[in-house]
Design a protein that fits this description.
This protein has a domain of 90 residues: Arc Repressor Mutant, subunit A. Helices cover 56% and strands 9% of the residues. By secondary structure, the protein is mainly alpha-helical.
């Protein structure tokens, strides 16, 4: 009988502890927190993409193959093809997360190369640089 009482108590305690831990995270803007400036939150979240977004902005509308993406991301020094592929996929995912959060569209789209179906081509969409990148350029 005491098990029926213990389960909700443990669940409630776990919920309360998780809530306190999430509320205590510094630097993370809670979804309902409208006091934090949006540009500053975006820079904190996507600041590591600054150089990549600058490079991609110059290549808008172009198609890049895998080797050009590796050069752009400075991955050509890695020996393992699997490591290159996983890091490339991670950066593409991060860049597209920024694109979805900022302009509701991906920045990079992947498609199979019609000449060689084993290769991927990356199409760079047109996008505006965010204010936090433009202010750091000058």
């Amino acid at each position: 009988m005491w098990v029926y009482l213990l389960v909700p108590v443990c669940f409630g305690a776990g919920y309360a502890l998780g809530r306190m831990q999430n509320d205590g995270n510094s630097g993370v803007v809670a979804p309902g927190n409208l006091d934090a400036p949006m540009g500053h939150a975006r820079e904190d979240q996507f600041g590591h993409l600054r150089s990549i977004l600058l490079a991609l902005h110059q290549l808008q509308g172009q198609h890049l193959d895998t080797s050009h993406m590796d050069e752009l991301l400075e991955l050509e020094g890695l020996e393992s093809e699997e490591t290159k592929r996983s890091r490339r996929a991670r950066v593409v995912s991060d860049v597209n997360s920024w694109g979805w959060a900022t302009m509701d569209a991906p920045v990079l789209t992947r498609e199979r190369d019609e000449e060689d179906r084993r290769r991927m081509l990356y199409t760079v969409a047109r996008f505006e640089l965010p204010a936090w990148i433009q202010s750091s350029e000058s």
